[in-house]
Amino acid sequence: MIRAIRAEWTKLMSVRSTAVALLAAVALTVLIGCLAAQGGHGNANDAPRTVDHFSFVHRELTGDGSVTARVARQKDSAPWAKSGVVMKASTASGSSYVALMVTPDHGVRMLADAKTEVTGSGDTNAPVWLRLTRSGRNVTGYESADGRTWRKVGTLTVRALPTRAQAGLFVASPARKHERHVGPGNVTGSFEPTTGTAVFDHVALAPAAGDWQLTDVAEAPTAGGPPAEIRTASDNPGTLRRDGGAFTVTGSGDMGRIGMAGVGDMLNSFDRVKDSLSGAQFGIIAAIALGVLAVTSEYRTGTIRTTFSASPRRARVLAAKAVVLAGTVFAAGLAATVTVLLLTRPIQSRNGMGPPTFPDPSLTDPAVLRAVVGTAAAMALVALFSLGVGVLVRRTAGAVILLFSVFLVLPIVARISSVGVNDGVNRATPIAGLAIRQTLSLIDDSISPWGGLAVLCGYTAVALGAAFWVQGRRDA
What we know:
Layout: H1 2-14, H2 16-39, E1 50-62, E2 65-74, E3 82-88, E4 97-103, E5 107-112, E6 116-119, E7 128-135, E8 138-144, E9 150-157, E10 164-172, E11 176-183, E12 186-192, E13 196-206, E14 209-217, H3 228-231, E15 239-243, E16 246-251, E17 254-257, H4 272-276, H5 280-301, H6 303-310, H7 314-350, H8 366-393, H9 396-415, H10 419-428, H11 449-471
């Protein structure tokens, strides 16, 4: 088998069209990706980025002290709904604060002045005990599952927290984004306020003065304030109901900064990695050509007879071709995907499609790595699929026309027809393999990344299986 692979490698590399096809695959993937990045513009990062809007149940705290509460129950009103304990300079929006919170989907978080965030445990199931302890300008957060054994979350320095501050409980629930697919590539969205509810018990604040009060910490709607979609709150003010030692609090809004504590997550409906890898849909043109020519060129020149005379075991010959072709295209594809990701990052950032609303993609992120490596693998699978079709058709023109129709013409026709047709084509044809580029789950995605790659793998397996069967049963 090694001799067969070596022979096929030599044969493939001796053909001038191989180098041209590989160069074209890399160039198209990189060039189209850079053009797509250059054409994308956004202004989500232009507005002020902080938000400080929530329901606050508080008493005065003078000097050092602590506030403790158990979040007994929390309504899953939004993935980043927040319930917990907070120390705040005053009840005015924008005043200095430090908060320790639990969220329905993202565990325990500690946040100070929309500048510093510390991640606690990933436990999102109430009840969760929370405690903030102040010593001078330093505030330490603790969490516990039973109120006896405490785990330190972190210590943050809050220099603007005065000696006489307000401390207690808070509830916030950001708006949800509702999207609707109204046409191929056309999505409309709206932001709807949500109301969070949390039940607190075992509440303790010491030292404390005065009675518990409820205040809606709310930003005044001013020009130049935070984007409306990140500060949208319900028209209903927060409520407080006490039943013995239990506090039931409702509230809307959010606290934090875009890119921190989930603020602005709903604005991020732009998949930077998928946009960077958009050129792969054109790079596969070269992969198709290379896969077809790897076998049809030998049929055209008649050298296939010489190949089978030297290696009578035809299945081994085809397997060697497949290994060499897949490895070569994968290497070229990986070079292209890594290069285009690195080149497009600064372009996207300059055009307003960068941090904090749109975080920089990193190859250390499993989703980004999967997209980059998976796209190269998808290009290799397309080449193998084309090899199988080339064996079955045995004519370069016929095989190329058929494959271009499947990978290029059909998706274009589907995209201008209807949502149903577009989704069906992107789910049920080999083009589904390019879904591996997705790193976000968006409404206009027709299929999951691994599901799409599995579809392409299935088509490739069928095409190669048929090629092995046919090649062993007909004359060269």
